[in-house]
From TrEMBL, chain A:
<keyword id="KW-0472">Membrane</keyword>
<dbReference type="InterPro" id="IPR006311">
    <property type="entry name" value="TAT_signal"/>
</dbReference>
<dbReference type="Pfam" id="PF13618">
    <property type="entry name" value="Gluconate_2-dh3"/>
</dbReference>
<keyword id="KW-1133">Transmembrane helix</keyword>
<feature type="transmembrane region" description="Helical">
    <location>
        <begin position="21"/>
        <end position="41"/>
    </location>
</feature>
<dbReference type="InterPro" id="IPR019546">
    <property type="entry name" value="TAT_signal_bac_arc"/>
</dbReference>
<dbReference type="InterPro" id="IPR027056">
    <property type="entry name" value="Gluconate_2DH_su3"/>
</dbReference>
<keyword id="KW-0812">Transmembrane</keyword>
<feature type="region of interest" description="Disordered">
    <location>
        <begin position="39"/>
        <end position="72"/>
    </location>
</feature>
UniProtKB/TrEMBL annotation, chain B:
<keyword id="KW-0274">FAD</keyword>
<feature type="domain" description="Glucose-methanol-choline oxidoreductase N-terminal">
    <location>
        <begin position="144"/>
        <end position="334"/>
    </location>
</feature>
<dbReference type="Pfam" id="PF05199">
    <property type="entry name" value="GMC_oxred_C"/>
</dbReference>
<dbReference type="GO" id="GO:0016614">
    <property type="term" value="F:oxidoreductase activity, acting on CH-OH group of donors"/>
</dbReference>
<keyword id="KW-0560">Oxidoreductase</keyword>
<dbReference type="InterPro" id="IPR007867">
    <property type="entry name" value="GMC_OxRtase_C"/>
</dbReference>
<dbReference type="Pfam" id="PF00732">
    <property type="entry name" value="GMC_oxred_N"/>
</dbReference>
<keyword id="KW-0285">Flavoprotein</keyword>
<dbReference type="InterPro" id="IPR000172">
    <property type="entry name" value="GMC_OxRdtase_N"/>
</dbReference>
């Protein structure tokens, strides 16, 4: 079970400032004020005796992480990044359950993945010849994932302009959904032969990368503040459940990240 | 070109469960053993930061690098076989321990019926039930359950398996070495429901141990901490029996064993002067590209199903199976598994995120021939189970069939269902069919220039019928468990190599008592080459409704006995 005293260490000073509203100029409530006072700004990794509970609440509040920006490795163009971010947000939108893909940092997750092994299909068989194949034979395109994402993003805009006369990122949610559905159902035009890329392949990757970015360990830059896990009641990295495994009632446990948590 | 090394008594190709067991037994008997492992060294110290679903479960960190080697696949001979470019349906192992590192630990013995499936089916139902005119090719394994029982017992004691007696399975000579795991709330619900329905549920035999255990070789296995990261992960506690914490250290302690990592075997070398022998193997150091010849008195193929087949085929040992003429034995009887289950939606929240890989309950009332098939259009069946392996958030997003797979409705329902759904599932047998087999691909090669294995496989009418039957039974159990809504799994159609199903591939190098229908005898000794042994799930003549590892382990112990006897006496082992 998470130990609240040690757990506090995982919040960086920056997170703390943001969640309490200091950095963004937000209003600090009574309980938050107590937290701020108790928190020693000069040693952010050392918890203060009085500040823990408040910082905890602040972190759980979510909704503040739109400003989360760990930087980008793959998407060098702001417009491209905005387009894919909007598409991911439609897959996993912010709503009354909690933050969506953007607030959770899922686009930054995808950005880092596309720059590395995932984007380059490093551990996958990419030797030719390439043929279209049956659906049961799986992915057969010559495109690596980073190429498929670049193409797919281009085609989101192409479809958007044909249907609604504007770029994808400027459409309303319903219009975006219409376009994404066309990709999902294989109706969108990828502008290349089907053996090279199918719209449903792009959609499948977009959907899975969004879910991965929402729920992967924060190590991968998504699931910001473990808000994805908190919505789902997943406790993340816990060393053991041997003390709780035979309890009959549901057990809520504060999540822990793989690194930087209570080890 | 290739550098020839000093000869050893025994060389094994691949160091997982089977390679480790052969090594431990042969080295203890005083034989010098080299284990050639294409991957790298690893062990418990490498699994200390293993609770990472994305890296290990989604991106397959511990599994085979298929950029180097994969297989090609087609559903039938009319299709063009294409490479399995990404892992999906099954997860091939790599590195020390092989798939034995990232198994769940569900350790079932196959049923007495399995080993004599042809004779027992014929006896009870008549030969028509074998459906040979439809292409089914059931065959006995050449060994009975009773003959194999001591080897099952030996494997279970090595691994310290936690379990309890199963009234629907074969007789045991001894109890499980450790008691069953903790019976959690969801398991109790399953137990009560299946008992109400007249079935015989038991705690699943588990290689995640219920308590600290020292095996007969003196290896210590820790007690499971229920951390919920088992399948696709290695155990940070050394509490999941795996080759790295049992047989490999046992073999190393003897001083007679060397594991040589980064050594990818590309050929078994035939004796040019004696067509009843092999002389050793040729391998590539995957880091330097250098080639070596490792001579050995005995060669044991202990890699996975596909590579055991492939090494025989590319070395031109034995005759390739031809589905047109049905001549040849190498590559025949490839089988897999098919699953049918039910998802129950509850109001109550369960601790579904806690668990262990083999934490579960199951019953075998619909497995093997434990129920009357007279009026059914299929044979065999499946083990029906609930498991609490630890649901993780990327992979577990259950929604009802009419719910969109993305957007707000998806988000809400998948979040709520994460702790409010349970599954009961049957793991069903696949029976051998003329059209399902392994061959060598003509177009695609691995990075060493060796052709890929070509898999031709589809579900047959038999498989789809057993799935339908078991799915309905799973639904009845879930109803009885009190779910608000019960959703039955959709029926399968063509086998699809992309979604994960199970790493329970079998056949291709089948064992038996007849060289016309098998590749090895029941000591796993090759019919043509006396000093060549081939062991693993590839030895199965069909696949049962169970996880395969206990049966693989039992065969490996029998094979080890054969290897040692052969090293002492030589000759054919099937001749009594």
């Amino acid at each position: 079970m998470a130990d609240k005293t040690n757990k506090e260490k995982q919040f960086s000073r920056r997170d703390f400032l943001k969640t309490t509203g200091v950095a963004t100029g937000g209003i600090i409530g009574g309980s938050m004020l107590g937290g701020l006072v108790g928190f020693r700004l000069d040693s952010p990794t050392e918890e203060a005796d009085t500040g823990q509970q408040s910082a905890e609440q602040g972190a759980e509040g979510g909704g503040n992480s739109g400003s989360y920006n760990p930087g980008r490795m793959f998407f060098h163009n702001d417009t491209t990044f905005d387009t894919i971010s909007q598409a991911m947000e439609r897959i996993y939108p912010e709503d009354d359950m909690g933050p969506g893909a953007i607030a959770l940092g899922a686009p930054f997750f995808l950005d880092m993945q596309l720059a590395g092994e995932y984007g380059n299909n490093t551990r996958e068989y990419m030797q030719g010849p390439f043929y279209e194949g049956e659906a049961t034979q799986g992915y057969q395109s010559r495109l690596i994932r980073s190429e498929l994402f670049r193409l797919g993003i281009e085609r989101l805009d192409t479809e958007a302009n044909e249907m609604f006369d504007d770029d994808f990122r400027n459409l309303d949610g319903g219009q975006m959904d219409e376009i994404l559905t066309r990709f999902q159902e294989g109706e969108a035009d990828m502008g290349v032969p089907a053996a090279t890329a199918k719209p449903q392949d792009f959609f499948r990757l977009l959907r899975s990368a969004t879910i991965e970015g929402v729920y992967a360990d924060p190590l991968y830059r998504g699931n910001h503040n473990m808000e994805g896990w908190k919505m789902k009641n997943f406790p993340g990295h816990q060393h053991a459940y041997i003390q709780e495994i035979d309890t009959d009632s549901f057990t809520e446990i504060e999540p822990q990240p793989l690194f930087g948590g209570n080890h | 070109m290739a550098t020839e090394l000093d000869k050893v008594d025994v060389v094994t190709i691949g160091v997982g469960w089977t390679g480790g067991i052969i090594a431990a037994e042969a080295a203890k008997a005083g034989l010098s053993v080299v284990g050639l492992e294409r991957g790298r060294e690893r062990g418990t110290e490498d699994y200390q930061n293993i609770h990472d679903e994305y890296k290990y479960a989604i991106r397959y960190e511990l599994m085979q690098d298929v950029s180097k080697e994969t297989l090609t696949f087609r559903n039938n001979r009319e299709q063009r076989a294409l490479p399995m470019r990404q892992l999906g349906s099954f997860l091939l192992g790599e590195n020390l321990g092989g798939a034995g590192t990232h198994w769940n630990g569900q350790t079932w013995r196959f049923l007495p019926y399995d080993f004599e499936i042809r004779s027992m089916t014929e006896e009870r139902y008549g030969s028509e039930k074998l459906r040979e005119d439809e292409g089914y090719r059931l065959q006995d394994w050449g060994i009975t359950y009773d003959e194999l029982e001591p080897y099952f017992d030996q494997f279970e004691k090595t691994a310290g398996i936690s379990g309890e007696d199963n009234p629907m399975a074969g007789e045991r000579s001894d109890a499980y070495p450790t008691p069953p795991m903790i019976k959690t709330r969801t398991l109790q619900m399953f137990e009560e429901a299946s008992t109400n329905l007249g079935y015989s549920p038991i705690m699943m035999p588990s290689a995640n141990l219920s308590e600290q255990y020292e095996n007969p070789d003196g290896e210590s296995i820790a007690a499971c901490q229920y951390c919920a990261f088992c399948e696709r992960f290695g155990c940070e506690y050394g509490a999941k029996s795996s080759p790295e914490v049992t047989v490999i250290p046992t073999a190393r302690k003897t001083g007679n064993y060397e594991v040589r990592t980064h050594a990818n075997v590309v050929e078994v070398l035939k004796d040019e002067d004696d067509d009843s022998r092999v002389t050793g193997v040729r391998y590539v150091d995957v880091r330097t590209g250098e080639e070596f010849i490792q001579p050995a008195d005995v060669v044991v193929l202990t890699s996975y199903v596909f590579n055991n087949y492939k090494l025989l085929r590319v070395s031109d040992i034995g005759q390739q199976y031809d589905p047109e003429t049905e001549e040849g034995t190498l590559g025949r009887n490839y089988c897999y598994q098919i699953f049918g289950g039910a998802t129950g939606y509850f109001d109550e929240q369960f601790n579904t995120f806690m668990g262990a890989g083999a934490l579960g309950m199951a019953f075998d009332d619909f497995n093997g021939d434990n129920f009357d098939h007279s009026d059914l259009d299929f044979l065999h069946g499946g083990n029906m189970a609930i498991t609490q392996t630890g649901n993780r958030p990327i992979a577990t997003n259950r929604t009802k069939p009419d719910t969109p797979s993305w957007g707000s409705e998806f988000k809400k329902e998948s979040i709520e269902s994460y702790t409010r759904t349970l599954r009961v599932q049957g793991q069903c047998a696949i029976l051998p069919h003329r059209d399902n087999y392994l061959d060598l691909d003509e177009t695609y090669n691995d990075v060493y220039g060796v052709p890929l294995v070509k898999l031709t496989f589809n579900f047959t009418d038999q498989d789809l019928a057993v799935q339908k039957y078991v799915t309905e039974k799973a639904g009845e159990v879930m109803e009885e468990m009190g779910a608000n809504d019960v959703v039955l799994d959709a029926a399968s159609t063509d086998y699809d190599i992309t979604p994960y199903q199970s790493t329970h591939n079998t056949g291709g190098t089948v064992m038996g008592d007849d060289p016309e229908t098998s590749v090895t005898n029941t000591y796993l000794q090759h019919w043509d080459r006396d000093n060549l042994f081939v062991v693993g799930a590839g030895s199965f003549a069909h696949n049962s409704g169970y996880n395969p590892t206990a049966t693989v382990g039992a065969l490996a112990y029998r094979c080890a006995e054969g290897v040692i006897r052969f090293a002492e006496e030589g000759g054919r082992l099937e001749e009594e």
